[in-house]
Design brief:
Strand content: 5-15%
Radius of gyration: 24 Å
Helix content: 40-55%
Distance between the termini: 45 Å
Order of helices and strands: HHHEEHEEEHHHHHHHH
Number of domains: 3
Strand order of the largest sheet: 3-4-5
Shape: globular
Largest sheet: 3 strands, antiparallel
């Protein structure tokens, strides 16, 4: 009797996240949408949001991560201070952090310095944030020392552990005002091209000795460069290949082959997701 091969297919992302918190997928989706600023998010935006939550192991139900509506549509992933503290303390290389405040002679707060320690480094990562550069007119900034301490801690965490593609609320609001991160509408058909230039004096020929016309070469290149990338499919493939990487060199080989920074050029959120996938795999193999 022939044995039947059994393959355990990976769970869809929504099902995996819902199972993690003991909810049904529809229940999890409805809860996250209603509590994390995702009520009007498209399916693609929602998928990108929970993918970031998964990669950084942040709990959207506890508001460790939520969404900020971007100007013109779309969302920006925001990580609360509780989420940043979770990211740092759960990192296997974390060896603690400490703060120092600087005041003027009259007691006015000037700056806050955070020193972030790693077990695998001899010297701490040190970041200083200045009140004049960070303060805003919002209610939380009435507690200047607390808010400036948060800013210094977040920036030190970025330098020490390479967290990317996520923002605090101040950064997220500025980012949303400056850049439209919503999916771009399909471009209108390109206008007719001008007549092709004359064939060069030394034309390119194929293996059979047939001359390749200049406009044919250009058309082939244009067709190849105009293919749209499905982000969800790309990240699933990247995760699958990273899972096979056993060393840091293997990870770099997958990263170079996929080249997500070029694939998502100008898309900070998807670049951040790709970096998170890479960093997670490096952490898993102890690199």
């Amino acid at each position: 009797m022939n044995a039947i091969a059994r393959t355990d297919a990976p769970k869809p992302l929504l099902v995996e996240m819902a199972d993690k918190y003991g909810l049904q997928p529809t229940e999890f989706s409805a809860t996250v949408r209603s509590t994390c600023g995702m009520a009007k998010a498209t399916p693609e935006e929602f998928a990108a949001f929970i993918m970031v939550a998964k990669e950084y192991d942040l709990n959207p139900l506890l508001k460790e991560i939520y969404a900020f509506p971007a100007k013109g549509g779309g969302i920006v992933p925001i990580v609360s201070i509780d989420g940043w503290v979770n990211l740092v303390n759960s990192h296997p290389a974390c060896d603690g952090f400490e703060f120092d405040f600087e005041h003027a002679e009259d007691g006015t707060l000037i700056s806050c310095t955070c020193r972030m320690y790693r077990k695998d480094r001899g010297r701490p990562v040190t970041v200083t944030e200045y009140l004049l550069e960070c303060i805003r007119t919002t209610d939380p900034w009435k507690m200047k020392h607390r808010m400036l301490r948060h800013k210094a801690m977040i920036q030190a965490a970025r330098y020490a552990f390479g967290f990317s593609g996520i923002y605090d609320e101040d950064e997220g609001s500025r980012f949303a005002d400056m850049k439209d991160v919503s999916p771009q509408a399909p471009k209108p058909p390109a206008p007719p091209k001008p007549p092709a230039p004359p064939v060069p004096e030394e034309p390119i020929v194929d293996a059979d000795g047939v001359v390749i016309e200049h406009d044919q070469q250009e058309g082939d290149q244009t067709a190849a460069s105009s293919e749209e990338v499905d982000a969800t499919v790309f990240f699933e493939a990247l995760e699958a290949e990273m899972a096979q990487a056993a060393t840091a060199e293997d990870v770099e080989e997958v990263w170079t082959a996929r080249d997500p920074l070029a694939v998502f050029e100008g898309d900070d959120i998807n670049q951040g997701i790709a970096k998170a996938i890479k960093n997670r795999r490096l952490k898993e193999i102890g690199a």
